[in-house]
Amino acid sequence: MTSFTPKIKVNTDRTTYSETELTTKYTYENSIVSINKETNEYNVENIETDLTFKVDLKVPRVGVLLVGLGGNNGTTFTAATIANREKIKFQTREGEIESNYFGSVTQSSTIKLGIDNNGKDIYVPFNSILPMINPNDFIISGWDINEMNLYDAMNRSKVLEYDLREKLKPFMEKIKPMKSIYYPDFIALNQDDRANNCFNREGGKGKVELGNKWEHVETIRNDIKNFKIKNNLDKVIVLWTANTERYSELIEGVNDTSENLIKSIKEGHNEISASTIFAVASILENSPYINGSPQNTFVPGLIEMAIEKDIFIGGDDFKSGQTKFKSVMAQYLVDAGIKIKSIASYNHLGNNDGYNLSSPRQFRSKEISKASVVDDVIESNGILYKKDESIDHCIVIKYLEAVGDSKVAMDEYYSELMLGGHNRISIHNICEDSLLATPLIIDLIIMTEFLTRIRVMKEDKYEKMYTILSLLSYWLKAPLTRTGYEPINALNKQRMAIDNFLRILIGLKPLDELRFEERL
Ligand code: NAI
Ligand code: DG6
């Protein structure tokens, strides 16, 4: 553990720093609106709530366990942390590149602190506000149904430049994924050849054992425990970046409560997915669990279990390129009073993720998470859209082996302008899919760890934040939210919540951009 000396000193009596803790008082303000449907009048009550937060300033030793370690994201993530830690420089056809973390909010973005005497905005690095783990210090391991070492797997992924891969070889070739569990019904049939590193499959590619899934939970729990002890870790975070699974059916008596879920796991029920097994094992080992894929790992019984055990969970599905752009574009158009009528989104890609998604049930999971992303923006504007009116939104993903990890995304936004006019915006984006997704994994882990060090005073007792980490929504396509609350998809709102939360913890006010120095 390392101690922290604040570099940003806010002159306020709202914060108290000790060597190991920061205590902050903050008055939360909001407006509660009630609508009289007959008169169409809005009654608004301003509310204030006094809160006290405590931040543990000690950065712990953190272990990261990835499910899907040998995949494109898993290998790129591991490679990125090693390349940065070792300060590797490498040649590309454009010249020498120094390793960096571009695309990571925590590592490569800034937050506005305030203005200088001339009214100029002053920004500081996101991760300088409060102590956060440096990704170079992650201790990484994980599971994969495929046995390949990470050097070979990184070459198979075809994401990184040749020179970088060769410089990483001595580090990557030593890493081998732990044996995993394989439930063939949940991922595409075309993945079967890959599944040669599974503790529930006889001799490499033999018969798959699905009888007692509780034994699978116990094996994964032991893996987590041993990893923690062997590496002398304070905390372990588990993240699913394995293949997209099909949805699990939600069945009363099977996965609806924590008790039924455990019973069904013990009975080896067909509707218990591998990802749910990993999540149960993580929760029972007090390790936060994040779902980077779209499937409904978090069945109601699992959410109940996480709440009972008070272990953080976050999901679903990394929000990387096309969807992130969509959540910005949709907000821009609708906030400008322009009525989006349709969005057509096409993707083609040639990596293993695309191969798995060429199977209809796995594609369906992705289609659901990609489609939900404009819902809150549409609902926010009752002038453009009637109640329950939606837009035409089509999602197409095609596997095209030749393009590899260089995903092509094409989107057409078709909107209605005033007096019958129309506005068509077409987007064409090509990028390495895994180089967009990996920085998100870094951020999700750093933010999850950071949030485990926050306490809020409730009835004279400090408590953790709520189990479902909706503050992670910025990085996720279909944010998991607390029962009774609808997901916020709009990217700017998601980012505002994170920035303002960090600001209030160090005694600043949330940003409002009123800039009265200039305007009054
Ligand atoms: P990938 O197919 O290259 O990697 C997945 C890995 O998971 C493979 O190595 C596979 O062998 C392994 N695997 C499958 N089932 C497993 C199990 N039960 N236990 C352990 N390992 C298992 O895919 P990629 O590109 O790394 O993506 C990973 C996931 O992240 C996918 O579900 C994808 O949909 C999701 N995602 C990816 C984004 C991106 O931009 N790359 C963005 C949003 C989500
Ligand atoms: C094709 O859509 C494959 C997917 O796994 C995507 O790469 C991934 O979901 C990222 O999608 P988006 O919409 O966030 O760029």
From TrEMBL:
Residues 321-434 form the Myo-inositol-1-phosphate synthase GAPDH-like domain. GO terms for cellular component: cytoplasm. Belongs to the myo-inositol 1-phosphate synthase family. Its cofactor is NAD(+). It is found in: Cytoplasm. GO terms for biological process: inositol biosynthetic process; phospholipid biosynthetic process. Pathway: Polyol metabolism; myo-inositol biosynthesis; myo-inositol from D-glucose 6-phosphate: step 1/2. GO terms for molecular function: inositol-3-phosphate synthase activity. Its EC number is 5.5.1.4. Homotetramer. InterPro entries: Myo-inos-1-P_Synthase, Myo-inos-1-P_Synthase_GAPDH, NAD(P)-bd_dom_sf. It comes from Pichia kluyveri (Yeast). It holds the Pfam family NAD_binding_5. It catalyses: D-glucose 6-phosphate = 1D-myo-inositol 3-phosphate. Keywords: Cytoplasm, Inositol biosynthesis, Isomerase, Lipid biosynthesis, Lipid metabolism, NAD, Phospholipid biosynthesis, Phospholipid metabolism. This is Inositol-3-phosphate synthase. Its main location: cytoplasm.
